[in-house]
Amino acid sequence: MVEQQTPQLDTVFHALGDATRRHMLRDLSGGERTVSQLAEPFAISLAAASKHIKVLESAGMIRREVRGRTHVCRLDPGPLASAHEWLTAYERFWTDRLDALDRLLREEDARNAPKPQGDDHE
User: Fold this and answer.
1) What gap in Å lies between CA 49 and CA 7, rounded to an integer?
2) What is the pTM of this model?
């Protein structure tokens, strides 16, 4: 069960809680990127970008490889799949609740609908 992975999920959701890191993940979904490439869209230093990358690494969502003097990052989607699985349980919960609400509202509308008038011929 996913609930047993709570510390990992906490780390994943913490990492996803920042817009810069979400953007970096989105960029990595298109393939490998260097730290410089990940930092480029933002007005941040390489040191600040590296801190964001370390948060993503600690959550297990990216892997960093050193090639000479260049640090190359790639997406590791496994932890995202765990988070998706956890969220899916709540999606089912809310879908069931919303379906029940929809049924109740339709029944109420049917009860409150005006009764059709019979054919009155004068």
Assistant:
1) 24
2) 0.70
**Contact between 53 and 47 (Cβ < 8 Å):** no
> What share of residues in the chain are helix, strand, coil (percent, to 5)?
65, 10, 25
Q: How many CA atoms lie within 13 A of 102 on its CB side?
A: 6
Residue 12 near residue 80 (C-beta atoms within 8 A): yes
Q: Which residues of 13-29 are buried (b: 16+ CB within 10 A; e: fewer)?
A: eebbeeebbeebbebbe
Q: Structure tokens of 17?
A: 């809680």
What pLDDT digit, counting tens, does each position of 98-110 carry? 888 889 889 888 8
65, exposed or middle or buried, with CB in 10 Å at 0-12, 13-18, 19+?
Answer: exposed
Q: Per mean pLDDT, which range of 46-55, 78-87, 91-100 is the poorest?
A: 91-100
Distance CA 107, CA 99 (A): 12
